[in-house]
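User: Some background: our group keeps a shared notebook of sequences we're curious about, and every so often someone picks one and asks for a predicted structure to add to the entry. Today it's my turn. The entry only has the sequence so far, pasted here. Could you supply the structure so I can complete it?
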Amino acid sequence: MATETGARPGAAVALWTAAVLFAALAVAKIALYGDFTADSGVGCVSRQNPDFVASCEQFEPAAWYLPYWLAVLGYTAFAVLFAVAAVRAARGAGRRFALVVAVLAVVLAVVPGVFDLGWRFAIAASSEPDRWVAEYVRDGVPGWYGPVEAAALVAAALAAVVAVLVLRRRA
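Assistant: Of course. Here's the predicted structure to add to the notebook entry:
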C-alpha cells in the first residue's frame, strides 16, 4: 500500500531485509577469515601436498584469496546499495534504482554464491600444487556455512524481487 507521498513501506522492509542479509554474509566471511588464512598457511607447507615444495609461490595464493575478498567486498557493497534503495523506497522514490540493484545483486552475488563459483574459480585458476592447497582450504570451511550462505543469498534475492514487485504496482 502506498502512502500519500508515494512511499511503499513494504518495499522498504523487503529492501532492508536484503541489506541486512548481505551485511550478515559479509560479517560471517570476515569472522571466518582467521580459519581461512590458517588453513591456507597449513596447506602451503603440508607434506601431504604431492608437490609441496612448489606450492604457494609468488602470487598463486591470490587464486583463493581474491574470490574470498571479492565476496566480502560484494556482500558489503550490496548491503549498502540495498540500504540506500530502502531509504529511497521509504521516501517514495528509487523504483529504477531498486530494480538495478536487485538485478546486479542476483547476477554478481547470488548466482556466484549459490553455485560456489568463487571456489570453482580458485581451484581452476591454481597450478597443480596450489590446486591441492585451494581444495584443502575449501575443505576447512565449516560444513554449515555453504548451506547458510546459499539460503541467505536466495532469501536476499527473493526480498529484492518482492521489493521490485511492490514498487512496480501502481498507486
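Suggested note for the entry: The chain has one domain: 9-168. The helical segments are 9-31, 33-45, 62-90, 95-114, 117-124, 128-139, 145-168.
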